[in-house]
From TrEMBL:
InterPro entries attached to this UniProt entry: YfhH, YfhH-like
Protein name, UniProt field: DUF1811 family protein
Organism for this UniProt entry: Caldalkalibacillus horti
Any Pfam family hit: DUF1811
Domain of life: Bacteria
Coiled coil: none
Lineage, broadest ranks: Bacteria, Bacillati, Bacillota, Bacilli, Bacillales
Length: 109
């Protein structure tokens, strides 16, 4: 298997479709942990299809599967590092999990 960083957009898209399909099957079969791992691989592959320059340092984002607003401090490759308001520790998420907070969509803490 190739590294995501070495794959073409078409290969990444194919990999994403495969991962999300397998994750659904695992989830339906009750293998939740395995489904979660496949979902993480999906978001990582999605991250390599994105332009990291579109993620704003200091920006606010929703993170798929998490509650609250994530404040991006910096980027390292395809990972965004930052904090949720209720946390004192930095966390990292693949940029493929981030969705920009738009006016009226910020969820209260």
């Amino acid at each position: 298997m190739s590294r995501y960083s070495e794959m073409s957009k078409l290969e990444l898209y194919s990999e994403m479709q495969k991962m999300i399909g397998e994750a659904r099957k695992k989830h339906q079969a009750g293998f939740i942990s395995e489904a979660n791992i496949l979902e993480q691989k999906y978001y990582l592959a999605k991250s390599y299809m994105m332009n990291p320059h579109e993620i704003n340092k200091g920006g606010q984002y929703h993170v798929a599967g998490e509650h609250g607003v994530f404040h991006v401090k910096y980027l390292n490759g395809v990972f965004a590092w930052g904090r949720f308001p209720h946390s004192e520790e930095d966390e990292a998420y693949p940029i493929g999990r981030l969705e920009p907070v738009t006016c009226g969509t910020a969820k209260s803490e």
